[in-house]
Every structure is written in C-alpha cells, then in structure tokens.
C-alpha cells in the first residue's frame, strides 16, 4: 500500500509542475 501512495505522490507533483508550466513535459518521462 505504501508503494502505491509513493507512486501517486510522485506522479502528482510532476503533473502539477508540468501543468503550471514550471517544468518541461520531459519530467513525466521520469515516472515509471
């Protein structure tokens, strides 16, 4: 269960950065 929460957190902050144009779309490539 903890791994699922970590994955969700990892994706959430990356999406937030990309959607607010604070980061390049390539950041999402680091989500695996």
UniProtKB/TrEMBL annotation:
Pfam families: FAD_binding_3
Domain FAD-binding: 1-32
Keywords: FAD, Flavoprotein
Gene Ontology MF term list: FAD binding; oxidoreductase activity, acting on paired donors, with incorporation or reduction of molecular oxygen, NAD(P)H as one donor, and incorporation of one atom of oxygen
Presence of the UniProt keyword Glycosyltransferase in the record: no
InterPro entries, per database record: FAD-bd (IPR002938), FAD/NAD-bd_sf (IPR036188), RIFMO-like (IPR050641)
One record GO biological process: ubiquinone biosynthetic process
Gene Ontology cellular-component terms listed: mitochondrion
Gene3D superfamilies attached to this UniProt entry: FAD/NAD(P)-binding domain
Keyword Transmembrane helix recorded: no
Protein name, per record: FAD-binding domain-containing protein
Organism of origin: Rotaria sordida
Source taxonomy: Eukaryota, Metazoa, Spiralia, Gnathifera, Rotifera
């Amino acid at each position: 269960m903890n791994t699922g929460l970590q994955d969700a957190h990892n994706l959430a902050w990356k999406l937030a950065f990309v959607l607010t144009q604070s980061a390049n779309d390539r950041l999402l490539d680091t989500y695996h």
